[in-house]
Amino acid sequence: MTAVAAANEADFESEEVRAFAMLLESFRKVDELRSTMRRFRVSPSSALAGDDFATPYETLSSQVETNLQGVFDNVGALSALVNDASILPAFAHFGLLRNALEMIGTGFWLIGPPSRDARVLRSLQTALEGRRDSTHASKELARQPSKFPSDDPVLLMLEQQRDARPGIAGRSLNPPSISSRLGAAQDFCSRQPYTILAFWRLTSGAMHGRRSVLKDILEHEILESSDFEVPTSMTSGVVVVANVLRHIEVYLFELVFLLLRRAGQG
After folding, report:
1. Which terminus has fewer CB within 10 Å in the chain: N or C?
2. Looking at residue 192, what is its pLDDT?
3. Segments forming the whole domain that contains residue 221
4. How far apart are CA 19 and CA 13, in angstroms?
């Protein structure tokens, strides 16, 4: 090994050590935030209380809280996976990272707009999306046609809640795509090196086994070689995982602060 190669290898190992330390620090901070959020309450005179009053079927605050708890749960599962494994798996954790990114983006998309009408409309759209998903799943499990009924009582209730607000009366209750929501979420958080949507696309590609993504983000160790094939062992580099999680940590804290402000807690 040349001196240059040895130096490069040492630099890489040092970077991995720093990345692993950053990973553990992110786990610690997110866990502390999770403990803090157990005391979350909506002040009666707050903006969020007004949002909840306008969304009585599935309140806006409960929707955002559910997304936050989902982020905490996925990061906690990732922490257990990393701490219990002697080596990072190649694929398993990408689903956890993707879920956390999607839930953070959805939370920003729901609570971010300064207009109550916009927040209420998005809340109603999310509630209807959940109702449709549940209805379709139940019917498909029973091997029945999964068409969503136009006279569904929840749909009619949500339409009434929408039409009670002149600013959004008659607006579509069909939500935009997930990618559109995550793109729009970026308007309500700070500028980081990578966006929520960019990392969501990356982790989605890895989770679905798309080789064009995997070849760029996985480390390959050659096991043996021959004239016909080169078997390799693939693992995820801790630098990539730490970078994604660091962005999740930053965005998560910003979402919590935004929720607290809307809830009248500073």
Report:
1. C
2. 92
3. 46-113+176-262
4. 10
